[in-house]
Amino acid sequence: AYWFLFDFLRWAQYDNESYINAARLLFAIDGGANEMGRISKPVFIFFPGLFEKLFGIHPRYIFILQNILFFYLNGFLFYKVLYKICKNYSQSYYGMIAYISCQPFAVFSLFMMADGSGWFFELLIIYLTLHIIFFENATKTTHLIGLATIMAIGMLTKESVLAAIIFSTCMICFSIHSLKEKINLLLVLLITF
């Protein structure tokens, strides 16, 4: 239903051409340009540029395909985050339905914009933070290194991922761990990031 409701907007956004040009610039394809600093989001523009370079597929189709994938992954991750918090299947399900039905998510997640991928990394960081800090042995360095790596990749996708990084930092600071453990956790994240 989203596709039919918002399809007319999908192809007319100003951002579309700037992302397409940045994807082309990343792979030295004719028409590449760095408009509005889009090259600063290399994770989001990587696959569209790669597919145009290798297979000649216009980047707009890969952007849309990529965002459809993130749309469904975001719904799944939102459900998982809610379930971690409330431990109730139906509340988590209805919360996920409300999330994917809200207008900004419905519209912007299927555009050729980095918003959907940014939301994915934000939700993934929140989910992993909840899992590692409260449901797993938080002193496992490999988990923290993985979390910090995902944070770094997320920041190369969309700058709004910083909100999830702040969330993770606050969750560590306010967790029940000793001060020494908190400092160690934050140092591992900082050094890896």
Give a brief rundown of this model:
By secondary structure, the chain is mainly alpha-helical. The chain contains ten helices and no strands. The model has no long low-confidence stretch (mean pLDDT 84).
Main sheet overview: none
Give the helices and strands as they follow along the chain: HHHHHHHHHH
Name the overall outline: globular
Count every helix, treating DSSP H or I runs of 4 or more residues as helices.
Answer: 10
Distance between the termini: 39 Å
Mean pLDDT value: 84
Number of strands: 0
Helix content: over 70%
* Rounded Rg: 18 Å
Uncertain segments: none
| Backbone structural class | mainly alpha
Strand content: under 5%
**Oligomeric state of shown chains:** single chain
Task: Explain what the structure shows.
- By secondary structure, the chain is mainly α.
- 75% of the residues lie in helices and 0% in strands.
- It is built from 10 helices and no strands.
- α3 (42-55) runs antiparallel to α4 (59-86) and α4 (59-86) runs antiparallel to α5.
- The longest helix has 28 residues, at 59-86.
- The protein is globular, with a radius of gyration of 18 Å.
- The mean pLDDT is 84.
